[in-house]
Amino acid sequence: MRGQSCAIVGASGSGKSTLLNILGLLDQPSSGYFQFSGVNITNVTPNERARIRNQEIGFVFQSFNLLPRMQALDNVALPLLYRGYSRSLARQEAKYQLELVGLAGRIYHRPADLSGGQRQRVAIARALVGKPSLILADEPTGNLDSATARDIMALLLSLNREQGVTLVMVTHDEAIAKNMQRCLYVNGGRLSETDLWLDSLDA
Questions:
Q1: In what helix (H) or strand (E) does residue 22 lie, and over which residues does it extend?
Q2: 88 exposed, middle or buried (CB, 10 Å; 0-12, 13-18, 19+)?
Q3: 5-30 b/e with 16+ CB inside 10 Å = b?
Q4: 94 near 73, Cβ under 8 Å?
Q5: Contact 73, 88 (CB under 8 A)
Q6: Domain spans of the chain, in order of start
Q7: I need a labelling partner for 22 at 20 to 30 A (CA). Which of 2, 28, 84, 186 fits?
Q8: Can you give 136-203 as a three-state secondary structure string?
């Protein structure tokens, strides 16, 4: 599914977030094994898992998870500093990503000075700055009004199409999930592909 967009849906407590954590190399499966880009993740060391996570995966969270005392520019640059980039190069790359998501005029603002939609754009820029092959998004529009949510979804899908980044998103919003190429349904820890929608699905 490289380069595709995929929604993960299911009732509360069904295991959606656990699945996303396994895909993001934050959790290990309780049984079986998991391959990432052909590598059996159950056989790699914690340091190797961290390296893959840092270089291959970008995370977008419902609550943004931005550092409140840092400007948007430095929030986005942070993953590159962890890779050993110089501060000037990391900020240069961060500035480019913020411009890409439409925040050229907000790069020196702190999260408290930004709207919810702007903060989520910062979070998306941070997820993209390391040029990952996979973006994992956990209810990225859950804290946004409907108009802003549509803008954020349009941005994520355009990045998926134009940059070829695989997008996997947990959502309970049928309208959002229908815009994705694939939809996976989690129920009782079991995973199946579906195009069916149930009114009883919740977050």
A1: helix 16-23
A2: exposed
A3: bbbbbbbeebbbbbbbebbbbeeeee
A4: yes
A5: no
A6: 5-193
A7: 84
A8: EEECCCCCCCHHHHHHHHHHHHHHHHHHCCEEEEECCCHHHHCCCCEEEEEECCEEEECCCCCCCCCC
Alpha-carbon distance of 165 to 58, in angstroms, equals 10
Question: And the tokens for 98?
Answer: 């913020």
Contacts of 198 (CB under 8 A, 6+ apart): none
pLDDT value for 8: 92
5-193 — its CATH code?
3.40.50.300
pTM of this prediction?
0.84
Determine how many CB atoms are found less than 10 A away from the CB of residue 71.
19
For the chain, 203 residues long, the average pLDDT of each consecutive 10-residue run is 87 83 87 85 89 90 91 96 94 95 94 94 92 91 84 88 91 85 85 62 44
Task: Single out the residue of 82, 54, 78 nearest to residue 66, CA to CA.
Answer: 78
Burial label, 134 (beta-carbon count in 10 A; 0-12, 13-18, 19+): buried
Predicted local confidence at residue 195, as pLDDT? 65
Distance, in Å, from the CA atom of 36 to the CA atom of 57, rounded to the nearest integer, reads 11
Q: Structure tokens of 74?
A: 């430095």
